[in-house]
Amino acid sequence: MYSILLNDRVIVKDENAHNLYNKRYYGNLTDSGLELSFIEALFLLTKNKIEIYDDDKLITKEDLTDIIRQKHIFSHYLVYKDLRIRGYIIKTGFKYGSDFRIYERGHAPGDGHSNFLVKILSEEQEIKVRDFSSYVRVAHGVRKTLLLAVVDDEYDITYYDIEWTKP
C-alpha cells in the first residue's frame, strides 16, 4: 500500500487503507488517509504490508529504524512488535500516562475497554517511587492492569504484572 512520510507520521494513501484499520486497528483514520505512528509503520513495513515514500525516495526498513532510533523510541518498537505478534491490539496510552494500552484478542477499540496499560523502561533506567506509585494508581483507578515492560541491553523484554493491593 502506497504511503508517504509526513513530519512525525506515515500516511497510508491507498484506497484499501481502511482494511488495516478495520481488521487489525492500525493507526487512525483521517480525511488525509490512515495515519500511522513510526512504530506502527515500521511493523507494517517489516511485514511488507506498506511501502513508504519521502517525495520520490523509497524509505527502507533500515531508514525508518534509524529514524526511530534517533527519536529514542526503539525500545517502544520492540515492545509493540512483541505484543502485536502475541495477538494484542495496541493503541497509545498517553491519556493514562502510559506508553500503550492493549486489548486482548477478540476485543477492539470501540467494542469495550482495554485491559492493560503498558509502561516501558530500559533495564538501567531509574524510576522514582512516587512515579511508579502514580502509574499503578492510575491503572487501578481506570480498572486496568499495569504491565511494566523492561527492555535489557540485548533487547530482551521482561513483563511485570503490577497490581494495586490494600494492606
Automatic annotation (TrEMBL):
<dbReference type="InterPro" id="IPR006677">
    <property type="entry name" value="tRNA_intron_Endonuc_cat-like"/>
</dbReference>
<dbReference type="InterPro" id="IPR006678">
    <property type="entry name" value="tRNA_intron_Endonuc_N"/>
</dbReference>
<dbReference type="InterPro" id="IPR036167">
    <property type="entry name" value="tRNA_intron_Endo_cat-like_sf"/>
</dbReference>
<feature type="domain" description="tRNA intron endonuclease catalytic">
    <location>
        <begin position="75"/>
        <end position="159"/>
    </location>
</feature>
<dbReference type="GO" id="GO:0005737">
    <property type="term" value="C:cytoplasm"/>
</dbReference>
<feature type="active site">
    <location>
        <position position="103"/>
    </location>
</feature>
<feature type="active site">
    <location>
        <position position="144"/>
    </location>
</feature>
<feature type="active site">
    <location>
        <position position="113"/>
    </location>
</feature>
<dbReference type="GO" id="GO:0016787">
    <property type="term" value="F:hydrolase activity"/>
</dbReference>
<dbReference type="GO" id="GO:0006388">
    <property type="term" value="P:tRNA splicing, via endonucleolytic cleavage and ligation"/>
</dbReference>
<dbReference type="GO" id="GO:0000213">
    <property type="term" value="F:tRNA-intron lyase activity"/>
</dbReference>
<dbReference type="InterPro" id="IPR036740">
    <property type="entry name" value="tRNA_intron_Endonuc_N_sf"/>
</dbReference>
<comment type="similarity">
    <text>Belongs to the tRNA-intron endonuclease family. Archaeal short subfamily.</text>
</comment>
<dbReference type="Pfam" id="PF02778">
    <property type="entry name" value="tRNA_int_endo_N"/>
</dbReference>
<comment type="function">
    <text>Endonuclease that removes tRNA introns. Cleaves pre-tRNA at the 5'- and 3'-splice sites to release the intron. The products are an intron and two tRNA half-molecules bearing 2',3' cyclic phosphate and 5'-OH termini. Recognizes a pseudosymmetric substrate in which 2 bulged loops of 3 bases are separated by a stem of 4 bp.</text>
</comment>
<keyword id="KW-0456">Lyase</keyword>
<dbReference type="InterPro" id="IPR016442">
    <property type="entry name" value="tRNA_splic_arch_short"/>
</dbReference>
<keyword id="KW-0378">Hydrolase</keyword>
<comment type="subunit">
    <text>Homotetramer; although the tetramer contains four active sites, only two participate in the cleavage. Therefore, it should be considered as a dimer of dimers.</text>
</comment>
<feature type="domain" description="tRNA intron endonuclease N-terminal">
    <location>
        <begin position="2"/>
        <end position="64"/>
    </location>
</feature>
<dbReference type="InterPro" id="IPR011856">
    <property type="entry name" value="tRNA_endonuc-like_dom_sf"/>
</dbReference>
<keyword id="KW-0819">tRNA processing</keyword>
<dbReference type="Pfam" id="PF01974">
    <property type="entry name" value="tRNA_int_endo"/>
</dbReference>
<dbReference type="InterPro" id="IPR006676">
    <property type="entry name" value="tRNA_splic"/>
</dbReference>
<protein>
    <recommendedName>
        <fullName>tRNA-splicing endonuclease</fullName>
        <ecNumber>4.6.1.16</ecNumber>
    </recommendedName>
</protein>
<dbReference type="GO" id="GO:0003676">
    <property type="term" value="F:nucleic acid binding"/>
</dbReference>
